[in-house]
Amino acid sequence: MTSSNFEPHPAAGRWDTRGVDASGSAGYCSFTKAIEHLGDRWSLLVVRQLGILGPQGFNDLATGLPGRISRSVLADRLRRLEMLGVVSRCEDPHPAYRLTDVGLGLMAPLGALRTWAETWLPDDPAMVERDPDVVLGWLARRVERAHCPARPVVLEFRLHHRCDRRYWLVVQRGAQPYGCLTDPLLDPARYVYLESSIPALLALARGRGDWSRAVRDGSVTAAGDPALVSRVGDWFRPVPERSHTR
């Protein structure tokens, strides 16, 4: 018995040849369609933003996406995503865009892609200044909330070569850590001032650098209340030993 839908068992060591034409070239398969519709720079970033933050207004998306997107390009991408059924507009209580069930189905593949990128793609030092919110997000994901102080602590980051640029990460026991691009203006006694090189900051943010080691070798300097400074390394997940040698 033959069937056009026959797919060999993986154990047979054969590829599924659906979507491959007689010449052996890949045809117009589902993967090709996905890349054509979603493979530009911005579409998946819009999906990710809506998936993480929930419904967003146009202005929120325009200012919140990493990098700089023009309003005309954003409007075009949103129209295309609406046509695909990935995004829909809601008007209550305010006009906003949200993911449909189709769009929510993209979040798991996006998570897998992010994990792959963080594991294998080389660091881009320029992104620390271009997209500091992304780096703060990486740092926030490495926080061990159970090990943080009961009262909020603000970690203020400065770069060795750009002391005029500052970024803030607020940590507290049991609370979701969050990054700020402006000073959160909390209790000054609860600030820890950290200065580092870009490579050191990226290594810490991506889980390849150890806080205690970075402070010891001088790639990160810390100032503030000694009781807080001495415990900064405890507030982040330890780095697996194999990560030091990557």
Low-confidence stretches: 1-17, 242-246
Please state how the strands of the largest beta sheet are arranged side by side: 5-4-3-6-7
The tally of structural domains comes to 2
Q: Tell me the number of helical segments per DSSP (H or I, 4 or more residues long).
A: 11
Give the proportion of residues in helices.
25-40%
| Residue-averaged pLDDT | 83
CATH-level-2 architecture of the largest domain: 2-Layer Sandwich
Pattern of helices and strands: HHHHEEHHHHEEEEHHEH
Going by CATH, what is the homologous superfamily of the largest domain? Answer: SCP2 sterol-binding domain
Strand content: 15-25%
Radius of gyration: 23 Å
Report the count of strand segments: 7
**Alpha carbon gap, first and last residue:** 52 Å
Largest sheet: 5 strands, mixed
CATH topology of the largest domain: Nonspecific Lipid-transfer Protein, Chain A
The coarse silhouette is elongated
Pfam family, one: HxlR
Organism: Rhodococcus gordoniae
InterPro entries: HTH_HxlR (IPR002577), WH-like_DNA-bd_sf (IPR036388), WH_DNA-bd_sf (IPR036390)
GO molecular function, one term: DNA binding
In a nutshell, what does this entry contain?
With 246 residues, the protein is of the alpha+beta class. The protein has eleven helices and seven strands. A hairpin with a 5-residue loop joins strand 1 and strand 2.
Defining traits:
246 residues; alpha+beta; Arc Repressor Mutant, subunit A; Nonspecific Lipid-transfer Protein, Chain A; 2 domains; five-stranded mixed beta sheet; disordered N terminus; transcription regulation; DNA binding; DNA-binding; HTH_HxlR
